Amino acid sequence: MKRRDFLSAVAAPGLLAGLAPALEAASRLGAFQPAPDDSDAAVFAEARKHFLIAPGVAYCNTGTLGACPIEVVTALVEGNRNIERFLADWPYEKADGEPLTGYQELKDVRALAGSLINATADEIAITQNATMGMSMVANGLELSAGDEVVSTNQEHAGGISGWRLRAKRHGVVVKEVALEGPLDSGPDGIVKAFAAAITPRTKVVMFSHITSGLGVLMPAKELCALARERGALAIIDGAQAVGQIPVDVKALGADAYVASPHKWLMAPKGTGILYISRDVQDRVWSTLASSHWDDHASGAFRFMQYGTGSVPVSDGLVAALRFVQKIGVERIARWDRMLTMRLRDGLEKIPAARLSSPSDRRLATAITTFRVEGIKAKALQDALWARKIRVRAQGDARGVRLSAHMYVMPAEIDAVLSVVGSSAPGRQVAVA
Questions:
Q1: N or C: which end of the chain has fewer CB within 10 A?
Q2: CA pseudo-torsion sign 379, 364, 330, 246
Q3: Greater model confidence, 409 or 84
Q4: Sequence-ordered list of residues with C-beta below 8 angstroms from that of 331, at least 6 positions apart, any chain
Q5: Looking at residue 36, what is its pLDDT?
Q6: How far is residue 128 from each of residues 132, 268, 375, measured CA to CA in Å?
Q7: Is the distance from CB of 221 to CB of 253 less than 8 angstroms?
Q8: Does 341 share its domain with 299?
Q9: How far apart are CA 380 and CA 396, in angstroms?
């Protein structure tokens, strides 16, 4: 599908009318291709033009859903058109290449995804999100009544609920370490809290690489080493990490790692990556079953037995992986951290601002949660949106969560600080 045809289709009367300026600008762009010697400012200013976010809007909610580059959106549209165009031509004599994902191995996609986190194709399954991957692991492991899973009290529902299900159904003991105190002691305090919670009955240590609510960078490598030392499996929820920071599952020592590329990797909504180390896979039962549910020789393909799925979504995942490769995750992480430190430095100068995320910058990530004394979280969220800055309210005790990803510019962080700085206890936030 030609770019102008795609833009005409999505710009039909009444459809996404508010995005017309962004669509028009995108129609004049070629493929994004940064030069190696470009400055970070130049690279990310140019990259920002390759998103359909309307000009003048700061999208700071990647912790919920990432924005897709136009190359990803185009891959989705072209994929759907091609399926419908060639649907009758496919003879169904072999699985590879057929117009549904649940029956083909997608080895190239898995290899590309694996290269991002240092895993082989047979250790990667393509799922729909981190919740699906974590539930597969939680329900697939042989655990008996009294066996323990040590986690935290700050896990996303999609990460912890599969283990809570096992507790209710099979008597597994889920111990959720309270992080509020340990966070004050930095990474060492977190490791000590886990060490105190682990017993000889502990079979699994599960935690977020970066927590969803407060954006805490957990000491993942140290926790994996602790789990291994105590004879437990180390399983990581990486929904907020992949695409935000470099991830190397081998260096971390993770036995399993789940991710939602539709966040920081900016892939289509409904994409997931499940890594299970080859030497651990035989300990995990398939919990979604189709023809290859017991085919251990095919590696992680056994965990892709979910039936008919969307090929264009996997096409979009490939486009997202290639888009990120052009920039490099290390460079993205550097930009995101610059934005985050700019935000934190500014908040420290505002008397009414209160950081809900840990103040220890060793634990800081591109997710920053903060509040303003005397201002309800929803009011602060709405005040920021009045300036076309999209954040997400996290309840009055925490305030709002701001995700500073690669399509956010320094001037937009300054605009956030302007809104926050214009507030005062007991008054509505000024937005002009």
A1: C
A2: negative
A3: 409
A4: 40, 43
A5: 80
A6: 6, 10, 37
A7: yes
A8: no
A9: 10
